[in-house]
Amino acid sequence: AQSVAQPEDQVNVAEGNPLTVKCTYSVSGNPYLFWYVQYPNRGLQFLLKYITGDNLVKGSYGFEAEFNKSQTSFHLKKPSALVSDSALYFCAVRDPGGGNKLTFGTGTQLKVEL
Amino acid sequence: GAGVSQSPSNKVTEKGKDVELRCDPISGHTALYWYRQSLGQGLEFLIYFQGNSAPDKSGLPSDRFSAERTGGSVSTLTIQRTQQEDSAVYLCASTLGWGSYNEQFFGPGTRLTVL
């Protein structure tokens, strides 16, 4: 069965500093990996995805993520955080051989402070 | 264009009552998903529709939960004899095409409170 782990419930970072939100996964085949962001009382918004190709994926709002197959990780990064980046971030995985459902992590609350 | 819409945005009901939640996917999207987001937990897959294929119901937590999708567009999630543990935000998402690499577009959710 596929699974996703987000080891940090909350990440705090100062505005202007780089941020990293961690994600590790477990699938039986090659993974399709996704990051979503959820603002208060809103649905999830797609940020970026890794399907194949370059391990560094660039997405919306200046976010990027690095796929590392040996470490089974897909950490979300941004070089310079903004207060407006404060939100709940979800990592998700789909096992191409396991149907079409997405399996989500439990989410990481990002708080960017002035 | 319009995104995924869901109604109602909030629903308060009494234990034992039935509720219906509605999802309007993005026009042209052939795949539709329902998820549940409970307080303190991640998102839990419930059911998936793709075109005219039989739905994947593997995530439905009990036989009190059912869903249908009429005409390949609008979907209704029905919860019968609601229980307090059904309280959650119910999210709908849609995807363009069959490919499992396509990102899902989510609606704003329906917040269900069972008293």
Structure description:
The complex is a heterodimer of chains A (114) and B (115). Chain A has 114 residues and is mostly beta strands. Chain A contains no helices and twelve strands. Chain A has strands at 3-5, 10-14, 19-21, 24-26, 32-38, 44-50, 56-58, 64-68, 73-78, 87-94, 103-104, 108-113. In chain A, strands 2, 5, 6, 10, 11 and 12 form a six-stranded mixed β-sheet that branches. In chain A, strands 3-9-8-7 form a four-stranded antiparallel β-sheet, with no helix packed on it. In chain A, a hairpin with a 5-residue loop joins strand 7 and strand 8. Chain A is globular and about 45 Å long. Chain B is mainly β and 115 residues long. In chain B, a hairpin with a 5-residue loop joins strand 6 (65-69) and strand 7. The radius of gyration of chain B is 13 Å and the shape is globular. The model of chain B has no long low-confidence stretch (mean pLDDT 91). Classes of the chains: A mainly beta (114), B mainly beta (115). Chain A binds chain B through residues 32, 34, 36, 41-46, 49, 51, 90, 92, 94, 96, 99-107, and chain B through 4, 31, 33, 35, 41-43, 45, 48, 50, 56, 58-59, 91, 93, 100-101, 103-109.
Note the topology.
The complex is a heterodimer of chains A (114) and B (115).
Chain A: E1 3-5, E2 10-14, E3 19-21, E4 24-26, E5 32-38, E6 44-50, E7 56-58, E8 64-68, E9 73-78, E10 87-94, E11 103-104, E12 108-113
Chain B: E1 5-7, E2 10-13, E3 19-24, E4 31-37, E5 43-50, E6 65-69, E7 75-79, E8 88-95, E9 105-106, E10 110-114
Parallel strand pairs in B: 2-10
Antiparallel strand pairs in B: 1-3, 3-7, 4-5, 4-8, 6-7, 8-9, 8-10
